[in-house]
Structures are given as C-alpha cells and as structure tokens.
Amino acid sequence: MIKNIIKVVAGLLMIVSVLIGYMPQPEYLIELTCISNTLGGLLLFADGILSMTKEKICPNSLYLNVTVSIFIVFLICAGSLFGSYNFNFSGAFFFLHIINPIIFVCFYMIFVNEQGRKMRCVLIAPTMTMVYLLFDYVRYRLTGEFVYGFIENEEFTLAWVIVAAIVTYAFVYLLSMSLFALNRFVHKRRNNRALR
C-alpha cells in the first residue's frame, strides 16, 4: 500500500512540474521533455491508484518505453553541461530535466520487476522515442524546423533519414537493453538477499 501511495505522490509531482513549467509557454508542449514527463507522471499516478484495487495493472512494457524516453531527456540535458548547447534548468525545468527522470528511472528499477520477461521484449522499448522522432521529422517537413533545433535546417534525403532512423533505433535499443539488464540484475540481487 505504501508503495502505491509513493507512486501516486511521485506521479503528481511530475504532472505538477509539467504544468508549472509549460503552462506559461504552451508552444513548447511538443517537447520530448514535456511528453515524457507527462506520460511518466500519468503512468505512476494511474498505476498507483489502480494497484490499490488490483494486483498489477500497468504492463512493464509501458514502464520501459517511458523510462527510456525520460532517460534520454536526462542524458541530453546532462550533456548540455559540457557547454555545446544550453537547456533551461531554472524552476520547474530543474525537476523536468534532472529530478523527474532520476525519480522515474529509480521507480522502474525498484518497483518494476523484469525477471519474468524475455530479452526480445526490449525490441519494442524504443517505440515511444521513435514515434516522437517521426513526429519531429514530419513537423520539420511541414514547418521547416525541428522541435529542439539541434540539426541545422537543410534538405534531408530519404537515404539520410533512413540511416539516421536505423542509428537512432540502435542507440535507443542499446540504452533500453542496458536499463532492462540493470533492472533484472537489481531484482536478482534482491531475490538472492531475500532467500538468505
């Protein structure tokens, strides 16, 4: 019961930080930061509430998808500390870029047990991130600019887009596999300690 209350509170914290950070500037609601934090908060909140009445309601695949996306947000924001690009870390954005991703990854590692799932399930873990990047590319084709503007506006050939999609999928898949394997390791250690 306490675990579910903690999930509800963490989910609310994530949702409130999204509202505080993005409501004054709704034109940025399409950022992966906003989407991944919102989905993560809703997932924790819903799972906490529904788990109070049922055993397990949210599939592990949802947790892994959101964990990968929100962890990518964290890695990109942490990369900005090297000075090649800038991110907003003031106010609610400190939570959105740093605190919330750490909280969500910790929840995934502690409360989601991947022991019973096979490695092949990780193949669909990059889905959320890849769908977001597809949305960003379609938006670029329509407006001429990407959401974050990391890439200079230029005409992309179909071959370049396909190669970029394959490389991105491979990177996100490896990141997913790392998080999945770490989760299994954490729960294996917990199970071994419980048997002693």
Describe, in plain words, how this protein is organized in 3D.
The protein contains 6 helices and no strands. The protein has helices at residues 2-22, 32-51, 60-79, 92-111, 127-143, 158-195. Helix 1 packs antiparallel against helix 4 (92-111) and helix 3 crosses helix 6 (158-195). The model has no long low-confidence stretch (mean pLDDT 89).
Question: What keywords describe this structure?
Answer:
single chain, about 200 residues, mainly alpha, globular
Which residues form runs of ≥5 with pLDDT under 50? none
Q: H/E series, N to C?
A: HHHHHH
Query: Could you tell me the number of beta strands?
Result: 0
Rg on CA atoms, Å? 18 Å
* Mean of all residue-level pLDDT scores: 89
Distance between the termini: 25 Å
**How many DSSP helices?**
6
Described by the principal axes of the CA atoms, the overall outline is globular
Class per helix and strand makeup: mainly alpha
User: What is the helix content?
Assistant: 55-70%
Strand percentage, roughly?
Answer: under 5%
Question: How many strands, what sense, and barrel or not for the largest sheet?
Answer: none
